[in-house]
Give the backbone structure.
Amino acid sequence: MGRHIYVHNPFCISKCPYCDFYSCPNVSKGKIQRYYETCVNEVRFLAANKKSAEDDHMDTIYFGGGTPSYPDAEHITTLLKTILEEFGIKEAEKTIEVNPSSLDMDKAGAYLDAGFNRVSVGIQSLDDEVLKLLGRRHDRKGAIDALKILKDAGFENISADLMTGVPGQSVEGIKNDCLTLASLGVKHISTYSLAIEEGTMFFEKYKNTIEDIVSPDLERKMYHETLNCLEDLGYKRYEISNSALPGFESRHNTCYWDGAEYYGIGAGAHGYLESVRYGHKDDIDGYIKDFRANVYTEEVMSEEEKMREYPFLALRTKKGIDTQRFKKRFGKDIHDVFSEAINKNVSSGLLEDEPGFIRLTLKGLDLANQVSEDFL
Ligand SMILES: C[S@@+](CC[C@H](N)C(=O)[O-])C[C@H]1O[C@@H](n2cnc3c(N)ncnc32)[C@H](O)[C@@H]1O
Ligand code: SF4
């Protein structure tokens, strides 16, 4: 199994009222430049201190955010080039997240030339009223223009993020958005149910009222009907929030649910290497000052913990837990280790236990967290 790299880009033009990702608006150009110089130094340091032969097989690189399309493209392309050179990467899935309001043809061309071969666009909705409520800086036209720019620049593998369960949104509206995205050649669609996160503006606005405005039944209806519509359009759901045309599943997303190892680079980034889950503090200044001092250990995973986490992650995927793989990895039959969790959830119709795979049923999908907890 190869390794993976995640780079965090903690800058945005402005903060969306629902978002609790680590990202800062209004950061000076000088600081952004120093940030990316530090990322380059971190990459060189990591490559000079490779952990194992696995580091010679970097399978995916993912620039996430924040908004990687907000800083000058030169910072991003220099950093990608450094990663490719330092780790000797020839073939890999290389994704960049972009926001329609900070993308133009020059940037799209620069990303492609530097080697990115996959783009994930924060579309959220193609309904101007919904976009306004979400505090997005782009409208429907801006979102569609961004997709056209990427296509014209030469990107084939384009993904779009959509949000569901937003006040004022309708099932029909989301289905129409899916149709439009399909007609524009989008290959992968992530659908996220609006989460009201503490510390965001939406938390103050909706913490007590969201279920009155969007009832849980309507929210679930939107989720399931969106998935059905995507299936009809040829996008197969391969994980709770992700659907793709065949062959366009994200290898980077998949690495997290497979328990694969990955480097986390940049302030706010998390990584998992040699049984250690670690993080970089959410602190751009601290990172620039000393990227090594910015790192903290979140958890040292024992074999027992890895074994408990494996089903927790794998249950997010449509194929579910590969029982042979579990046996090969941990030397035990999953039915012996988790008999109680499996029997309980199979009898209540939330899990199906088929030869080779244990997976969530359609009913189980709505209670995925509850089922996964039983394995932890
Ligand atoms: C880092 S952003 C994507 C790139 C870029 N920053 C943008 O917004 O266009 C990751 C995605 O997470 C989703 N997201 C963020 N906050 C969310 C929330 N509170 N509930 C549901 N989805 C959320 C959005 O779909 C967003 O596109
Ligand atoms: S949703 Fe994207 S653009 Fe909006 S604040 Fe979060 S990271 Fe920034």
Q: What stands out?
A: The first helix runs from residue 29 to 48. The chain has a mean pLDDT of 96. The pocket of S-adenosylmethionine (ligand 1) is lined by residues 18-19, 21, 64-65, 67, 97, 99, 122, 124, 161, 163, 192, 194-195, 197 (CB under 6 Å).
